[in-house]
Amino acid sequence: MIKSHTLIFLSIFLIITNCNKLFSQELKKENKSIIQRNNIFENNRTLSSGSRNVITVLNNNGSVNTSGRAPQGSRLYVNTCYIIRPSEMIASGFGSDTVKSVGWTWNASSSQNITTKGTLKVYILNTTDTAYNKGTNFATAISGMTKIIDDSIVIPAGLGPFSVNVLAGGPGTSSFVTTSGQGIYIAFEYKTTSSLATPSGSPTISCNNSLANRGGTFQSQGSNGTSLLLSSYAPETKLGNSKLDSVEIKVLYCLGGIPSTFACNDTLGIRVKKNYAGAYPVTVKIRIDNISPPFNVRDSIFIPILSSGIYDTLIRYQIPCYAVSVGGIVFQRDRIIVQALSGELDDSYERFPPVTIYSTKENCHYTTYDFYNYADPCVNDNGGIGINNSSGNIVARFNNYSSNSIPIKSVEHSFTNLAGNGNNSYKIIIYGDNGSGKPGALLYSSPTLMSPAGTGFSQTVSHTLTSTVNISANSRFYVGIRQNNSTNIGFSFQNEIPVRSKSFFYSYPDTSNTWTDFSEAGADYKLDIAPVLGVVSYVNTLQEGFTSVTFPPTGWSAVFTGTNYWSRNSVSSFGIGSGSAKFNYFSAPVSTTQSLVTLTFPATDSGNYLSFDLAYAPNTSGTDSLKIETSTNSGISFSNLTSLYGNSAGGTMNTAPANGASYTPTSTQWLTKTYALPVGVNQIRFKAISGLGNNLYLDSICVFDPSITPFVLNLKLFMEGFYDTGTNTLISDTVALSLRNSVSPYLIAGTVKSTLNSSGNGTFLYNFLSNGTGYYIQVKHRNSIETWSSSITTFSTNVMSYDFSTSASQAYGSNMTLKGSVYAIYSGDINQDGIIDVGDLSQVENDAQIFTFGYSATDVNGDDFVDAADLAIVENNTVLGIFAVYP
To answer: Per-residue pLDDT tens for 36-89?
Structure first.
């Protein structure tokens, strides 16, 4: 799927269903099969049991346990077997039914510090036993039991209680039916495949300990085993059956990516279905969580639905819109969680017809700087779609809601084909609207392109338009592909059942202007395609990255009495750059009030924003606060813009868990804050008030002004580890680009952080530079060697372009490596000390041993896992003795 503009922090799991078989669903018109889907992949998001009723078959009795009674993200291996007695199954009302899911509840009074994933196998057996009789050897215990789950499980971080219900299925599993009047044995074997959470023995599992020796558990942080230690504790257990939920969320409709610059706000559509008649209350709860630390809830609303009959309806909710940072960096990453709440909210309450506590669906929604996309950025694509036996066109509709025209500069799109397929010709096409909500005039048709060779997985490619297409204000437009021949192109999609209407269209042959709506044809696929906007005029009138060792920076001031607790620190936001501003709440006495004041900058206009990166961990006690104040008279007086606070119970400053030691952030413990500024602001004050908490770090402080024409640097660059020679694509990531003066001591004229897309292209916006002045380009990346341009470059009419990939001589000292057909900067400088050596190697080795995953500096190839592949890159460059080369 399209990922080039995003950094994804969720664990995503993919199950390939019968890879060697093509599943197809045909759309028929004039008795001709038109569209077929290829290579269907199912994804399992283990948050809910879908539309099936979930019944608690073993209730908790108020007891809790921190051992592996249920899967534990802080345990490497857990094997458990326990009994649910016939009397307990009878009391639950589950009866004789097919088990569709198994779930457990975590009380989370002690929570794990990170979200974890692991592999899970679940076994089940009917029994007339009234006491546990499976022995203390796990291998013997599961003999004769039916495996109903072979899948992955995600255990979230944070406080609960929460339940995770895992759908039945997976390799080698079988269907299982309970026997009325009998009990069951349940066994599971679990292994954490991500980094282990801390502390050990968390999160707390909700249990029942009413029966002596109800089951046994093996758990280890080192190696797997089968010897079970018997205990009275067994986990509260939920089983999904074949009955429908009393109320369910069928599908969510929202964009996966939407540019705030021109398109906010997006409307969330929620398809709600009530399956049983009755006057029981139904409420739809919408919660929007920030995906990045500190994972705070941005919005939470309840929508009551008053109906006593069965119904299926669509309700709408406008998603809040947030400003974004400059230079293509994605600022807002939200997970939208929608729950249908029905009946009582007490887990122990059951009645007939069965009324479940909730049915849940979730989507990720990114407010971006420069691109649209329907595809959910937190799940994988499900397969490929194309035209059978004919040429044709497939497009997605987008909207420009703003009063300004928008420039489309490129289109990122994905293909999913099996190995041996692909390599088919196509064109990128863009249409205007015909006035009736369908494609109209053709605005753009690309030269003939070729889809990548199939791999069995989704592959993203990018096409830069040969000429920019300007989309009129307040208008609809359509972007897609033209399949040039009768071979199915394999255009990537995600399942959406039923698909939203008036959003996706096809026509055939490729010359036809007769368009069919996917929703009318029963084609339940949303397309993975992203039109990318051209450069807009948001640039910085103030930008400070604390790269200079001089502190406060020139023109800035620290206002304090006694000891100054403001200082410069060498850590930098998201691990890119060389410094930040730190306020030492950890040492500052309670009520100490000190300020960091910016220089005076050009007065803001309407629509200007303040943006900065922040990292903060609270102490185990104490509440710190930060007031952000603005001045319109160069600091003579200030007015409060907003106030932030942080403590161990939560807070708007928190980006990391509570920490009793002096805090220094990791590269993943940063959050971008953005606020609209009043007109006329020309100075900003950051006022810290100590509650004897912990340390605060500020970086990348920007005020951006839409009235100033930016200086645009178009860069092409590849990082050795992130570049795939097979697909000729780069895993997108953020880099910091500094322009340095051309004479010693090569002072920094401007630094911008932005992303490189899958083709290695990135756009970097600067201000306060000069046309005709020479600059060196300095590149820094979280785990690559610092690299400079070999020559001095200049802006002409505010635009400069530089391509590192064409030759080693494009880098100063030819300090690049040939990878495939392109030159790339060396990967492996984990600690960013300018040399790749054993210090970097040891960090990768350590993280590989503990299965580190996610956005980490030790992930040298960008696949979100630290393993032998990363180790090999660093080891090779250590042997070569790679170090930074610059003037």
So the answer is: 544 332 222 222 334 456 788 999 888 888 899 999 988 999 999 999 999 999
Task: Name which of 638, 543, 556, 540 is nearest 597 in CA terms.
Answer: 556
| CB count in 10 Å sphere of residue 624 | 28
Cα–Cα distance measured from residue 838 to residue 844, given in angstroms and rounded to the nearest whole number: 10
Upstream peptide bond of 602 is cis (omega within 30 degrees of 0): no
265 close to 321: Cβ distance less than 8 angstroms: yes
> Which of 68, 45, 590, 536 shows the shortest CA–CA distance to 336?
45
Q: Which two tokens stand for residue 663?
A: 């805090």
Q: Are 239 and 102 in contact (CB under 8 A)?
A: yes
Rounded distance, CA 99 to CA 265, Å? Answer: 42
How is the chain split among helix, strand and coil, in percent rounded to 5? 5, 45, 50
Residue with tokens 């609207």: 433
Amino acid occupying residue 47? L
Coil, strand or helix at 549: coil
Alpha helices, H only, 728-858: 838-849
- Termini Cα distance of the chain: 40
* Amino acid code (one letter) for 644: L
Closest to 173 measured CA to CA, from 237, 220, 127, 120: 120
User: What does the alpha-carbon distance between residue 309 and residue 277 come to, in Å, rounded to a whole number?
Assistant: 4
Q: Structure pTM?
A: 0.49
> If you ran DSSP here, which 8-state letter would residue 326 be given?
S
pLDDT in tens, 308-333: 777 777 777 777 665 444 433 444 55
CA 793 to chain centroid, in Å, comes to 36
Give the Cα separation of 761 and 285 in Å (integer).
Answer: 41
